[in-house]
C-alpha cells in the first residue's frame, strides 16, 4: 500500500496504473472507523497483488481531499485505466455489510 504525499503523486499513480484497478483510501489517523478498517484493507492488499492500493491522509492533504469532494471518512474511490473513476463511497459498518451481501 502506497501512502500518497501530494496531488502530483496521486495523479502520477493513476496515470501509470494503466488498466490496473486502483483503490484510494482516504483516511484520518484520528478516525475510529478508519483505524478499524485499516487491517482489513491491508489484508485485501496482500490478497490482491494485481490491485494498486493508495492511501491519502485527510489531515495532511485537506485541500486535495476537498477538491475531490471528500467530506466523510473513511472514503474510498476505485479507478481503472481509461474508465477513470469506477465508483466511490463512504465506508461505514452498514456499507460494508450491504456491499458484502451483493
From TrEMBL:
Keyword Nucleus: no
Keywords: Redox-active center
Family matches, as Pfam families: Thioredoxin (PF00085)
Signal peptide location: none
Keyword Transferase in annotation: no
Similarity field: Belongs to the thioredoxin family.
Family matches, as PANTHER family: THIOREDOXIN, MITOCHONDRIAL, THIOREDOXIN-LIKE 1-3, CHLOROPLASTIC
Protein name from the UniProt record: Uncharacterized protein
Organism, scientific name: Ensete ventricosum (Abyssinian banana)
